[in-house]
Amino acid sequence: MTVQPNSIEARDAAYQLHSYTNARKMEAEGSLIIEQGDGVYVTDNTGKKYIEGMSGLWSVAVGFGEDRLVKAATEQMAKLPYYHTFAQRGHTPAVELSEKLIQMAPVPMSKVYFTNSGSEANDTVVKLLWYRSNALGKPEKKKIISRIKGYHGITVASGSLTGLPYNHMSFDLPIPQVLHAGCPHYGGFAQDGESEADFVARLARELDEMIQAEGPDTIAAFIGEPVMGAGGVIVPPEGYWKAIQDVLKKYDILLVADEVICGFGRTGKMFGSETMGIEPDIMVMSKQLSSSYIPFSAVMMNDRVYQPIADETNRIGTFGHGFTGSGHPVGAAVSLENLKIIEERDLVGNVARLSPLFLERLNALAGHDLAKEARGIGLIGALELKQQGDAAGTAGAAMSAACLERGLIVRNLGDTVALCPPMIINEDQVKEMFDIYAAALDSLSF
Ligand code: PMP
User: Nearest CA to 386 among 438, 444, 428, 434?
Assistant: First the structure.
């Protein structure tokens, strides 16, 4: 790719610093400019059409160009484009959405707090946990255990929770209150001859030892994605979440489920917590909540979390936290309509119905010469490719480029190449997606 002077690609490189991008490479090569979307497809500025095999960033559940969301946004814009939720003020869309989310929760929940991104939501979680510990007269109970390869965002606190090197390198992260426990990727971290059951038992034992070494009274919470997404689509082995929860219960440590990717159907049930048998005290939601038509996110908490916090706001006089956009009426209206679409069209059922085909096609590629492992659940999956020599990520980048050339957008996370299509996808489109994916894989040579 070379950049034509004054083209949109050249202007993009001239004026923007892009996320997860090598800025120097982008200055030389430009970017891919997407103009339009319709269903599971997007079109670039040259008119080339792609299957959006990643739903954008794991997020456009109902697909692109959904008129009902456009209408919900337009109507709300016309009626009340903005209001806030500070100082005992409210508006109907945020009330209705909080009520709806509490009703949908897979375990009893008490309150919803609205934010604008997954990172903001997780940053808020850290602050809620610290505030709560102070409220309980336990100022030393501040550490949070996350996991190697977990992804929870990129702000100072949420970026610390994230357990991936690029999110720490040169940013002076993580902050000292965050610890990282082992990653539940059996194929990646099992010791020689270790069975899955032994692997799970070891992870639970190591967590127990970490808690003992740090002092159980210093740990506020454990946070995890039911199924890890950006860390490379890692589905934990059978029994993992039960073993982890047993340890947390023993030490009275809260559990936070980061449902930012798993939430609203991705794993074949409404929440990843249901699929994985997790009983969280806090749930974090974004992405498929609004199908990312508008930035929106939420933190849901149970009474164990809410009640001491409410007492503390009363003692201090106010809850000194809030974003201008918390519970934005347009975001709330779009999210409500999005949840209606997910329910009315039974998109969670669609994920469950198509998952066997999706996993069969994915697993069929595990035997390919270049493949190391296939992983997936529901309609989220990835193929990990064998590393080429010392250059980690080369195979993944080549696969991503080969897919793009053939009209499929995937996401390469190192040498792992992920798929997470819109939940409205149909059987023919799943086949079309894997035909391209398989052809791209076959085309690679190193
Ligand atoms: N948590 C999880 C599980 C995520 O996948 C992401 C985003 N990929 C985030 C948090 C952060 O969300 P955002 O990019 O909206 O800040």
Answer: 444
Cα–Cα distance for residue pair 99/102, rounded to 1 Å:
5
Average pLDDT over residues 185-192: 97
Q: Do 77 and 99 reside in the same domain of the chain? A: yes
DSSP strands (E only) in 215-339: 219-224, 254-258, 282-285, 297-301
pLDDT at 11: 94
How many whole angstroms from 117 Cα to the centroid of ligand 1? 7
Which amino acid residue places its CA nearest to atom 1 of ligand 1? 152
> The pTM is what?
0.98
pLDDT of 5: 85
pLDDT at 142 over 90: yes
Q: What value, to the nearest 5°, has the Cα angle with vertex 386 and ends 382 and 387? A: 115
- Residue 19 belongs to some domain of the structure: no
Torsion of CA 331, 284, 377, 357, to 10 degrees: -10
Supply the ipTM of this predicted assembly: 0.99
* Residue at a domain's end among 299, 329, 344: 344
Q: Are residues 168 and 200 in the same domain?
A: yes
| Per-residue confidence band for 1, with pLDDT thresholds at 50, 70 and 90 | low
Last residue of a domain, one of 329, 344, 359: 344
Please work out whether the CB of residue 163 comes within 6 Å of at least one atom of ligand 1. no
